[in-house]
Amino acid sequence: MKILYLETSSKNCSVAISDDDKLLCVCEEVSDNYKQSESLHTFVEWALEGAGISMKDIQAVSLGKGPGSYTGLRIGASSAKGFCYGLKIPLVAVNSLETMIEPFLDQNYDYIIPLIDARRMEVYTAVYEGKTGEELSQTEAKILDETSFEEFKDKKVLFVGDGAKKAQEILQLPNADFNDSIYPSAQYLIKKTLEKIENKEFEDIAYFEPFYLKDFHGVKKKKPSDS
Questions:
Q1: pLDDT tens for residues 88-113?
Q2: Does domain 2-96+184-199 correspond to CATH entry 2.70.70.10?
């Protein structure tokens, strides 16, 4: 089964294609300018070319559903829906945080904790068991302070994601490791996607919404002064 994977929730615009569990191609780029609107469909074309297949060969689409960038998630979701409608194929959605822990499972960490940078000292996070990847606490928006995650001070913990940098500056955890170069990636959607397909956990394409976690707060325009 050939599957197209889209991950647009962060600065990493990421596209992958697999044949069942075999990764055929991945095309991604990290940009501070959030280039999803410019790059996503180009990356899909490149990934298809790299995999040696065409769009009509795709049998399912998997989307990293967030949490993360509101705009990035909108772009990814609308593209995924468009592909699914056009090809009449199912849509699978996976928590983007789960793609960040996949490369680090079974590396002698008790826990792996993704941290996606939100505003100021806020992060999107969840706690996963370090060997199996089992979710131990639900995804939440968390304000970091010196006491955050102190229940893990005697454990071997890995914090991953672009929120790890500000966490490292304030957390009092002597046994923790921090890796702030990790972003959600389409290539790590494969395992969870295949589980969902096997269990027939498909999304309702018409009503699917990304996992925003918080309401969007746009910049309010100033009213012209009455002069």
A1: 999 999 999 999 999 999 999 999 99
A2: no
